[in-house]
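Feature request disguised as a bug report, sorry. It would help if multi-protein outputs had a clear separator. Right now it looks like this:
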Amino acid sequence: MKRLSILILVFAITFAFFIITPGLLNKPFTPFPQLKIADVLDLFTPIVLVPLYYLLIYFGSNQAPSLKSTIVFLVFAVLWVEGQSMHLAANSIGHWLSELTGDWIYEVTYFYDEVFSHYIWHLGVVTLSALLIYRSRKYSFTDRSSRLLVESIAGIIYGFTIFIMGIEGGTVPLLFPFSVLAAITALILGWGKFKHLPLLTFFLVGYALSALMFTGWGIYWGSFPQFSHLGWI
């Protein structure tokens, strides 16, 4: 149980790092200035995070994943990787097309960079979350318990990151309702049993927080403007 708690915290911190940091590293990559440092860092995003997802699948319940669960995981992971890699390539190319605004090349690149890739990628995030929520409830640790402090801290980090993904990625129509649904589902499934369901607790805290942050952002601005559109990044 302690190992799982640490794994959950490592996942949350690593997830936040690879989702948030690339947006802050816009300087040219010296060996190949046409690329940005963010592009190079983002190459490692799926290499690091997908194995962590699988470790959560493997250790997140009291039963190792079956062949069926593994296949489902692979399908959702492929969505995650496909969307992220599509975004990485299109975003890197799009930096050099600002003078072609209105041209079909710019429009197609923008579509893959800012719309299609984000929704495919974030769909992978929510489907993997749903799989983890399902497995953690079905195969709970009935003979062991956790204090849930580490899981709660990890959930706060994760919820904040999901909020940033949705706002800056323009996928609020996907991540906002899923956050509400996931939080309610986790609350119902884990009621009275959370000490035996550390992974479910993590997602409850995370998605409840992101749902609240989406709600507050929407009320404050009257819509869901991206941070970059507000000039914050």
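(second protein starts here, but nothing in the output says so)
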Amino acid sequence: MREGELRHLTTSRHSAGLTGLPVAPVIDNVILDGGEDRSLDEMVANTERGLLLTCLWYIREVDPASLLLTGLTRDGVYLVENGEVTGEVNNFRFNETPVGLLGRVTEAGRTEKTLPREWSDWFTRAAMPALRVPDFNMSSVSQGV
């Protein structure tokens, strides 16, 4: 994908030879770019009330057709009120599809280099902005760490 368009499907040398398509191996980076030049601190300062999630973990596919994922928040979920972090809250289980989530983004901050916690073995080069997403689907409270 580039600029929101599917450029090509992944093909091995073998499948490219069978189909006549160019070789397009699996890539090992994830980049989301195109947000405002705004820091996370600035985004928090402009939040009336919300949750600040710092890590999503144990991400698993629930429905491949809709790309529905489930997982847990981890290592920091904070309550933001009137532009300030006012306290910690518990972890949650979530159910979201990245397609639906990206369609609900109302603000994207500055893209920063990051290391994905869950998939860091495969995606060692990643860059992502902070995102403001209304109605992120927290399905239940997690008793985990």
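Even a blank line would do. Unrelated, but nice: The chain has a mean pLDDT of 87.
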